[in-house]
Amino acid sequence: MIIINSLIEIFPQLLRGIGITIVILIGSAIFSYVTAFIAGFLRLSKRKFIRGATTVYVEIFRGTSLIVQLFWFSYALPMLFGIRIGSDILAAILAISLNYGAYMSEIVRGSILAVSKGQTEAGIALNMTPFQRMRLVIFPQAVRMMLPEFGNYLIQMLKATSLVSLIGLTDVLYYGNILRSSNIAIESTVYFVILIFFFLLALPLIFLTRKLEEFSKKGVET
Amino acid sequence: MDLLSYWDGFWEWVRQFIPLNWKWDMFFQAFPFISKGLKVTAGLTIITYIFALLFGFVWTFLRRIPNKYVNFTVTWTMEFIRSTPPLVQLYFMFYSLPLIAGITLSPFTVAVLTLGMHFSTYIGEVYRSGIEAVEEGQWEATTALNMSTYQKWTKVILPQAIPPTIPMLGNYLIIMFKEIPLVSTIGVVGILHLANDFGSLHYRFLEAFTVVAILFLILSYPSALLINKLEEKMNGKYGKENLYLEENN
Asked: Is A75 on the interface with B (CB under 8 A)?
């Protein structure tokens, strides 16, 4: 009973923060997918310099933790250049999308390399240009391999959005923290309700990922 | 000499466009100060990892119970732990649990329990995929040889199931290491916490957070390379198809 009462009491309060959470989720999803494709293709480039520079980016962002990057973008970067990068929302989206973009670029690269060599050879035999080969033959086959992992990383990004309350953005967890310190009666349940809140946000993504997994397995010999 | 003055002039010209505000003396002050937290961070990582490795077996065991309802409950509990933010879980264990259960745990214990639990759900899946990769014939052979359940698992199944998963388990160690700085929010004095302290003491967050990033890079990049090597070695040893484990994270 206590749980249901506090659910009714807490949920509307948390809803005030859902806007920021969803804006950051969608923003970083879009930017990270774009980053992943760009970085993934650049790592397959023939030029050594481009490949090396992209590798440095990927390894730096994969080698340090997201929370450090978030603090770096919101506290250190403005100090370094004496300017702020727009708002905190922008800093958060930048940190999350560059981090997950680096992770997913590996998936893009791996999937493209995993398309069997015969496909490339067939493309050459049909006198396709390299661009046509990529666009018409290799890329469509690689994308379906990427999809389940992309879904998984979407859930990871949702989890990562909870970190933005640490740099002062007013997301779901921020309002939860305020509730905890202002109302002693619901102090014990507020974080469990937030967990349920995040789980409800994650549920559609979980089902989406399962659908994507089915889709990517369909009609492919293993 | 002339060249040097040109260079100075050029540098001044660049600096007016990019006002770099970097202080090396602060950097060298911050480095030893923050490195002191490395012991806590590394220790926490290892203890949490051991906890996750052991608790992963519990999930694997629970998922193998052949009962529809138990299976459903266990699957969705795992899904719940896995798809909710570890930060909120830490807050829950640290702030709410003492009020609900009446036990107060130290921040360090909370960190081990929460993050260990969080990652044990991933590690349980890794074990499961390893066990499912063991061939059908091996299971039948244990039945044919009239082995007890204990013998079956310790002598036949697990020795074949676990070694191929070692690279994946290593990956999770690195992933976990990067989630460990979260615990600075509940007051475990690791490197991120010390960086915050240093930053607010001297108002130099730039150097402090850069030091943290460098420390993470120094530790995690060589381990990642090591695991890649290990993966290649395992590929040769167990064959590629055995290693194709589903990454269900």
From this structure: yes
